[in-house]
Design brief:
The complex is a heterodimer of chains A (255) and B (220). In chain A, 40% of the residues lie in helices and 24% in strands. The N and C termini of chain A lie far apart (46 Å). By secondary structure, chain A is of the alpha/beta class. In chain A, helix 3 packs parallel to helix 5. In chain B, 81% of the residues lie in helices and 0% in strands. In chain B, 36% of the residues are buried. The chains are: A alpha/beta (255), B mainly alpha (220). Bound molecules: adenosine-5'-diphosphate and magnesium ion. Chain A: This is Amino acid ABC transporter ATP-binding protein.
């Protein structure tokens, strides 16, 4: 394989069960470099679990995860596994619904601790890069603020900047705006659109159909651990073929 | 009340209090080490270590401290372990209070939101790094509180070593009580010393809490 043609993220037959409860029943997905894929579907359909398995926070029971030509879920154990997985995770940025900023660190320190401790970047250099990122998400003036002093929208923008500080190859968003007050959603969406414009590869789990329609190159509709329908947003979101997609969208756009 | 007696025995009681302080300090340090090891074992990936921590803690919490002290001090020689009373007291109390402190440490660590571990691991931090850079700093205030509570309990528990002949506050008080037939004054002085030491310990912990416990940022 050459670096030109291989997808940024490639999932083959991902399966995951908790006890006897099968949550992912064989998911295949290809995300080309610079593309944006949105995942929609009812609550409990396995969207979060899928994102969590991509960076091995929830290792799948079967299937393959490839990141830019590298097998993510290698059959390693012990220290070799830890080393491999920590290295791979540095290449994937994750943004959580609940932000999960580190409350004992300032906004700036939230951004710098990763590069300093994990990549050996000098504190001075890390700070310069972090300030650039904070400026990019519009929060340069909040560098020294602790998370408790930030609004939800500001927290999520810091969280996005924190993930970007590791210079990831792909960004994973798990309902990044679901915990926000409605008036704070736009500022976060704006940052995500900006990333999209910069050709960042993104996998976005979202409940916002309009946002998905606007930014996505590809949309997956998941239900009950399976991909029911996928395609470009004009198709999946505007003219879905499957009855289940239609009924989901009807409910979702009605509410 | 015999004030003259009180004045006369106070210097000797102060000396005995120094013994109590030494016992307390050595034991607390030992206890903190034991607690750290137990807490680490309790979160280990090895089921054996986790099991060891659980059984150890349940034994320490499930049997009287005095019995533990007697087993070590009187039973030890049977196994070829002859300790002087002070050493036996330090070891026994350290092993015991370590179990209690570790329970507090474990609770403090578990009280940190799982989202913190998730965020740290997602960035690429390893298990130990996650603990060190993110979990422990956030658990520190609660850990400190638990250490403080246990330190006060420990301070008063040191009285038990009087039963194996260490002349600390309680033993000294008893000796003066027996010699003068005025137990109220003799043991009353001991009690006042304990109270003063307790204030010192709680004051010290409060100082530390102000220094480390109060964080600018609290979990959102
Ligand atoms: N750690 C877990 N243990 C057991 N069940 C889980 C766990 N995580 C998720 N699940 C279950 O998996 C299913 C899918 O959850 P999730 O991936 O969070 O769905 P979604 O994000 O689409 O709402 C749910 O039924 C949920 O209860
Ligand atoms: Mg979810």
């Amino acid at each position: 394989m050459t670096t030109q043609t291989q997808p940024m993220v490639l999932l083959k037959g991902i399966r995951k069960h908790f006890g006897s409860h099968e949550v992912l029943k064989g998911i295949d997905l290809t995300v080309e470099r610079g593309k944006i894929v949105s995942i929609i579907g009812p609550s409990g359909s396995g969207k979060s679990t899928l994102l969590r398995s991509i960076n091995m926070l929830e290792p799948p029971n079967a299937g393959e995860i490839w990141l830019n030509g590298e097998l993510v879920n290698q059959p390693l154990t012990g220290r070799a596994y830890e080393t491999h997985i920590n290295a791979v995770r540095q290449k994937m940025g994750k943004v959580f619904q609940q932000f999960n900023l580190f409350p004992h660190l300032t906004a700036l320190q939230n951004l710098t601790i990763g590069p300093i401790k994990l990549k050996g970047v000098s504190p001075a250099e890390a700070k310069v890069q972090a300030m650039e990122l904070l400026a990019k998400v519009g929060l340069a003036d909040k560098a020294d603020a602790y998370p408790a002093r930030l609004s939800g929208g500001q927290k999520q923008r810091v969280a996005i900047a924190r993930a970007l500080a590791m210079r990831p190859q792909v960004m994973l968003f798990d309902e990044a705006t679901s915990a926000l007050d409605p008036e704070l959603v736009d500022e976060v969406n704006l940052v995500m659109k900006q990333l999209a414009a910069e050709q960042m590869t993104m996998l976005i789990v979202t409940h916002e159909m309009n946002f998905a329609a606007e930014v996505s190159d590809w949309v997956l509709f998941m239900e009950d651990g399976l991909v029911v329908e996928q395609g470009p947003p004009e198709q999946v979101l505007k003219n879905p073929v499957m009855a289940r997609t239609q009924s989901f969208l009807r409910k979702h756009l009605a509410s | 009340m015999d004030f003259e007696l009180i004045l006369r025995i106070t210097p000797f009681m102060a000396e005995a209090a120094w013994m109590t302080v030494q016992l307390f300090a050595v034991t607390l340090i030992l206890g903190l080490i034991v607690a750290s090891v137990l807490t680490w074992a309790g979160f280990s990936r090895s089921a054996l270590l986790r099991g060891f921590a659980r059984v150890y803690i349940s034994i320490m919490r499930g049997t009287p401290l005095l019995v533990q002290l007697f087993v070590l001090y009187f039973g030890g020689p049977q196994l070829g372990l002859s300790l002087d009373a002070f050493t036996a007291g330090c070891i026994c109390f350290g092993l015991n209070i370590g179990a209690y402190i570790s329970v507090g440490m474990r609770g403090a660590i578990l009280a940190v939101s799982p989202g913190q571990t998730e965020a740290a691991r997602a960035l690429g931090f390893g298990r130990a790094q996650t603990m060190r850079f993110f979990i422990l700093p956030q658990a520190a205030p609660l850990i400190l509180r638990s250490v403080g509570v246990n330190a006060v309990i420990l301070l008063k528990s040191t009285a038990l070593v009087s039963a194996i002949g260490v002349v600390e506050l309680t033993a000294a008080g008893q000796r003066f009580a027996n010699a003068t037939y005025q137990p109220f004054e003799a043991l009353g002085v001991a009690a006042v010393f304990y109270l003063a030491l307790t204030y010192l310990v709680t004051g010290g912990v409060a100082l530390l809490e102000r220094r480390f416990g109060v964080e600018e940022g609290k979990p959102s």
